[in-house]
């Protein structure tokens, strides 16, 4: 007896509903309890927005937000540059001595446990601190270096996959017509791989903003990122101001996603109109 495919089954909506419920109901509960009047984050005692005011009055939490956003931006930007260079080395230089080792070292952070990565970086900074005063104290610099280390691997994979799909005949045709390699890169290659660069930057920014394990190894007492502050406060009990902070983050992500969707839909509509006009 042949099984009925899931996509043709009447159960598909139930399965989709269960999956989306599992993913989004906890987020909705978190948003609802961010408006809870009481101190207990899991016991509803009335509607109030006071915890949003308390959130912005918490200097430690606000400082951790600014620090995480700064490190995330710097780490993602640096990782895009290094990851793009590494991707071009792997995809465009062909076979060279040490290629296997280079590829392994680039992608090692993808499969390396965070505990091992964080501990090894901690030992590295301790060793460097004996020779350079810059690494004598762990802080924003050491967190930034650690985040760049593992974010670069993700950017390299994203950009490499895009370079593999790129039609090199277009670049070769441009060079045959007299364009320099540098001009070909900025006029043809870079615009073509730009979506991959943006995707890699967003992925690196998200990973940096979300990192807890590695940051706990390489951070100092005066440089606590947002995940570290939230983790330390949650161990003492969930506060409604943490729910308020998480709700604001969900709102920002939702707005950014909507704007990105609107821009892509607008660009696609414009492209279809241009195709119709040219036909």
TrEMBL record:
Superkingdom as given in the UniProt entry: Bacteria
Subcellular location: Cell membrane
Keyword Transmembrane listed: yes
Keyword Transport carried by entry: yes
Membrane topology of the entry: Multi-pass membrane protein
InterPro entries noted in UniProt: Bact_Polyamine_Transport (IPR051789), MetI-like (IPR000515), MetI-like_sf (IPR035906)
Keywords, comma-separated and alphabetical: Cell membrane, Membrane, Transmembrane, Transmembrane helix, Transport
Annotated ABC transmembrane type-1 domain residues: 65-260
Transmembrane segments: 12-35, 67-90, 102-129, 141-163, 184-207, 242-263
Main location class: membrane
Family to which the UniProt record says this protein belongs: Belongs to the binding-protein-dependent transport system permease family. CysTW subfamily.
Protein name: Inner membrane ABC transporter permease protein YdcV
Organism the protein comes from: Vibrio hippocampi
Lineage of the species this protein comes from: Bacteria, Pseudomonadati, Pseudomonadota, Gammaproteobacteria, Vibrionales
């Amino acid at each position: 007896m042949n099984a009925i495919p899931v996509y043709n089954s009447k159960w598909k909506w139930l399965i989709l509903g269960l999956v989306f419920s599992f993913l989004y109901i906890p987020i909705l509960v978190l948003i609802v309890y961010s408006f809870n009047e009481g101190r207990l984050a899991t016991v509803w005692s009335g509607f109030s927005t006071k915890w949003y005011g308390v959130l912005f009055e918490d200097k430690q939490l606000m400082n951790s937000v600014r620090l995480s956003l700064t490190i995330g931006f710097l780490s993602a930007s640096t990782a895009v540059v290094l990851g793009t260079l590494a991707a071009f080395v792997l995809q465009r230089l062909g076979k060279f001595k040490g290629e296997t080792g280079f590829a392994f070292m680039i992608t090692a952070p993808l499969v390396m446990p965070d505990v091992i990565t964080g501990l090894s970086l901690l030992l590295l900074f301790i060793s460097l601190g004996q020779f350079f005063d810059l690494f004598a104290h762990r802080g924003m610099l050491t967190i930034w270096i650690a985040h760049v280390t593992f974010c670069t691997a993700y950017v390299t994979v994203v950009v490499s996959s895009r370079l593999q799909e790129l039609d090199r005949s277009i670049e070769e045709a441009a060079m045959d017509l007299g364009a320099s390699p540098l001009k070909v890169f900025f006029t043809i290659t870079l615009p073509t791989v730009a979506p991959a660069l943006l995707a890699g930057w967003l992925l690196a920014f998200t990973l940096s903003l979300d990192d807890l394990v590695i940051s706990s190894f390489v951070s100092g007492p005066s440089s606590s990122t947002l995940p570290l502050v939230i983790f330390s406060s949650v161990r003492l009990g969930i506060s409604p101001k943490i729910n308020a902070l998480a709700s604001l983050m969900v709102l920002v992500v939702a707005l950014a996603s909507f704007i990105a969707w609107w821009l892509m839909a607008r660009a696609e509509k414009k492209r279809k109109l241009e195709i119709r006009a040219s036909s």
